[in-house]
Design brief:
about 280 residues, alpha+beta, 5-stranded mixed β-barrel, 5 helices
């Protein structure tokens, strides 16, 4: 021990304090760096340019919007239940679920401004613009230009009000959507809630465990459903697995579904004033 008042003791204490503070600063720096990387990993960045904003004038159903200056926009990668009766509607239960999906989407975006991200194919055969739709929100887990966004397509799947509907070549976020669907289904959210609780017994045929396809009648063909390359178990009532290799509706792109009421053809001219924002 250094004698009290010794200059050597004072210097020793000073050096010890400096060493301690140096080590503490280094530790805090490492912690801050790791924390930053963790938070950064929780945020996605759109792979394409965001265009907009444009106001949402109308929610047609759970996967289709009408935007000011844009026209009809079909959300890429998802499919919501039919919200009105037409030749594709399976029955009143689907319409009820479709109305619920439409209401959820309306609460999320109606009357608000959104941004659009396009993929490889910009329009479907009905001339609807195909897009990933973004809503600015402090709670969003997408980041662009220093602002945070929710991706509406993904939020519909996360909430269980839309199924994954992959139509090549627009497959940019297909893996992300599939994971969100698995989580929503496991939690019994949205349309999956009724199947999970048994209140809609028989809606999803157990022969197709990875997707939700109703049992016959009616008898369905691959062209009638949005799913491809899914697992099939006996007895395969719809005969999707023609070669009996355990995989249904193999290969090929899913053809777009017929236009729904309210999805006007020929609309969707994206004005130049909205580009490149």
């Amino acid at each position: 021990m250094f004698p009290s008042g010794s200059s050597i003791g004072a210097k020793g204490i000073g050096l010890g304090a400096i060493l301690f503070l140096t080590l503490l600063a280094s530790a805090l720096s490492v912690f801050a760096s790791r924390s930053s990387s963790v938070f950064a990993s929780q945020s996605n960045s759109p792979q394409g340019r965001l265009q907009g904003p444009s106001s949402v004038l109308k929610v047609v159903d759970g996967d289709t919007l009408e935007l000011l200056g844009v026209g009809t926009v079909r959300l890429i990668g998802i499919d919501a239940p039919e919200s009105s009766y037409n030749r594709r509607t399976s029955g009143p239960e689907e319409v009820r679920l479709g109305q619920a999906a439409k209401a959820f989407l309306s609460r999320l975006v109606l009357g608000k401004q959104v941004w659009l991200e396009l993929d490889t194919q910009e329009r479907d055969r009905y001339r609807r613009l195909l897009a990933y739709v973004y809503l600015e929100s402090p709670k969003g887990d997408w980041s662009s230009g220093g602002r945070r966004f929710l991706q509406v397509n993904l939020e519909m799947v996360r909430a269980g009000w839309a199924e994954v509907y992959t139509v090549p070549p627009n497959v940019r976020y297909a893996t992300l959507f599939l994971e969100a669907q698995r989580q929503a289904r496991s939690k019994g959210l949205g349309v999956w809630g009724r199947a999970a609780t048994g209140t809609e017994k028989g809606r999803c045929d157990p022969a197709y465990p990875e997707v939700c396809i109703p049992p016959p009648p009616p008898d369905l063909d691959c062209k009638d459903i949005p799913h491809r390359n899914f697992r099939v178990l006996p007895p395969d009532p719809h005969r999707f697995d023609r070669d009996r290799d355990g995989v249904g509706c193999e290969g090929g792109a899913v053809q777009p579904a017929p236009a729904r009421p309210g999805a006007a053809e020929g609309e969707g001219v994206f004005q130049e004033s909205h580009r490149g924002v």
